[in-house]
Known about the structure:
By secondary structure, the protein is mainly beta. Helices cover 9% and strands 49% of the residues.
Amino acid sequence: MSLFDIKDKLYKRKVSKDISQHQVSQYNPKTEKLNEEPSKFQKEDLWLKKKQGLGATEKKVIKKGILALGIIIAIILISAITYEVRRVVFTKSGVFMSIDGSTQARSGKLLTYTIKYKNNNWVDIKNTTLEISYPEAFKPTNNTNFQKESPTSGIIKLGTIKRHSQGKVVFNGKAYSPKGALIYLRANLKYQPSSFSGQFQTKSQIGVNITSAPISVEIEAPQNISSGNQINYLITYRNNGSEAFENLKIKIDYPDQFTFSHSNPRSLEGNNIWYLGNLSPGQSGKIIITGKLEGERNKIKTARVYIGTTEQDGFMSYSEESIATKIVASPLSITQTVNGVQHLNVNAGEILNFKIMFKNDGNIGLRDVIVKEKLASSVLDYSTLDMQGGSYNADDKIITWKASDIPNFKSLDPGQGGTIIFSIQIKNVIQVKNKNDKNFVISSVATIDSPDIPTPITMNKIIAGNIMDMKLNSKLILATKGYYDDQKISNSGPIPPKVGQATTYTIHWLITNISNDLSKAKVEAFLPTNALMTGKTFPTGANLDYNQRTNSIVWNVGNVKSGVGILTSPKEVAFQVQIKPSPDQIGKEVKLLGQSILTAKDDFTEANLKQVSNQKTTNLSEDSSLISKSRVTN
């Protein structure tokens, strides 16, 4: 079969063998359009051209593809070879680290741990940093090149560790944790192999069990108590070790609804921290805390006590203990008020009117009821005690009421109750002999009991009670004195004062503060319109503000310690006042300063205190040189 026959069959059309009679329309390759339908000769030429093989362009493209493929294969081979080489010269498993040291420790004892590291690779590792982390109860000490970054971590920069070399770091510290605590020290070695980029790390850790504490602390309290009753916490502590401990403190976390009353010894920071100072081997001590505990029936109230020291990052505990007290119900109830309220601050010289309310809340009668009121305070004047029945024992400061005083106490029926009334006065003069005579509290504890109240086995007997604490406000004294003949500031002008002529006087303010520390104290007064402040003060530069438009003078005192004016000299300031009498003042005394008002905040009772001193005139009785020379002359 001829070529033309094959073509004819392919295109399904019948063609003539006489090719000279056929015309072929021209193909425009730029516009990619056929001007006319291609003839069979054109189609034949294209078919023949494809059969003859690839053109130059196609060959060029194929060559480039083969070249690119070769490059990719080469890169893969090189990478594989490089990786294999690096794998041979460095592996992460070739870097080792361990922490050696005791896994059993005593709280507060200096611990030493050795952190060892080793590079078994064929290349150095660089930019090496050892990160050490630990709990807050662990305190690093005396560590070379250790840089603390947070309360629980720090770093040591090791730089470059040579191939096939090793080293170690000694890390010291103390664990302040109670017995049985488990703490962890963790080390993280971060580094970069010198043969290629990328950061790696190797980790290690050690657990340390606290086996004992050199200092023990215990706390005791009633197992159960009626809501509102007085509760006593007894804290005992002891140094069981062979070395002394310095700067010790005891701290207690009270249960909720606990109201602090007082403690022996007194707390020196808030109501829950006591400074013990140094504690020698075998030395011991105790703290008694008294307060009121309230809560719903069957609630468990837990107190926790700690003994330790204060580090830079806060309180660190050597040992700790807790005690739980259950709130239970009593068939007897008792409450009390003073001056009609249950919470109040009191003042020197004030009369306290007590009212005690009692009731049988049970469902059976109770025999031989006894009510007691313990009222112990050094600021009370017991000679003013006024009772309706009852007996006062001066030795233990307890008032007792029995059936002989209140007949219903012989048998108090269910739902039956009553009221007891008495009064006592606070001393006018509060004795302050040393710096510890401050922050006085009058504590009154009322209890009611009957032998018919059941006492469950293994439980202490429930005696209903109620405690009230009255804080004594500090007593302030503001004295205003004036002189012409003054030792602090020299004065001038005619005495007695004359019309139209200026005469100066020196005014002194003196503050006495009896029993509590004060803050935000200031004294304020006004000069009369015809007077002015000259600017002379003592001491020079005293914190006095004078407003000439209003003629007001303010002494910004600030803080005033307890015992000022009693244990130390009064707080004092002096300033000069000038007057120039007018004709209408002839024969009269001239006003120098209006009423002076001292205000301050009592830091113990948080009460805002106020004391007033009377105005001053030229009739200055404290200056003997001015006798009969106080009235204006012409």
